Amino acid sequence: MIGAALSFAFACFGLGLLMNAYRVIWAPSLGDRILALDTMVINAIALLALFGILKGTTMYFEASMIIAMTGFISTVSYTRFLLRGDIIE
Amino acid sequence: MLAEIAISACLVISGVFGLVGSFGLIKLPDPMMRLHAPTKATTLGVGGALIASMLYFYFIVGQFSFHELMITLFLFLTAPITGHFIAKTHLHLLHKPEDLPPTGGARPWASYESDAERARIEAEAEGETGA
User: Fold this and answer.
1) Which DSSP symbol is given to B64?
2) Could you tell me the pTM of the whole model?
3) A41 min Cα distance to partner chain B (Å)
4) ipTM at complex level
């Protein structure tokens, strides 16, 4: 039962990642592109967590922690650059 | 058996929420509406996946791992901040200063205030509290 649910979740997040990729390439405004990249990071974290369940190892959580931090910093610095024209004032 | 049902339910719910969040990003018509879908639904989806992982490692593998809690806490703390910053970017890039509603004070919207003006007002406020 867990295997079927895991496959379903994998399919959902993989499809979500494809939709984000579509939005990164064809975006109506710059803010949407940043938002799509941020969502991509979140979906990648979910996929890593699911992969950890599939393999039965906790080794991937350090990686997802680092991806979460990098995603947050990159989103904030990109928006900050667009807002103020400078990242660290 | 009960643990398996709980884990499977968490996985399915998280998958549906993640898919809805990502679908909303390409479906909704307005930039500010598009901001809603990923910041709320997808964050909840990741939360579900991490809870499922925590339950799995506690009940099936038999070891308690608190990494998921840390990741969940970090994501739930940072999701509103990124949402706020992206909303400010939308306001700044897609609206003219005169289209925005009044702020109700002497100062303009934060992203349109010049650095010199902001520094002057902050120095004044600091002088008042310091005196």
Assistant:
1) -
2) 0.85
3) 11
4) 0.86
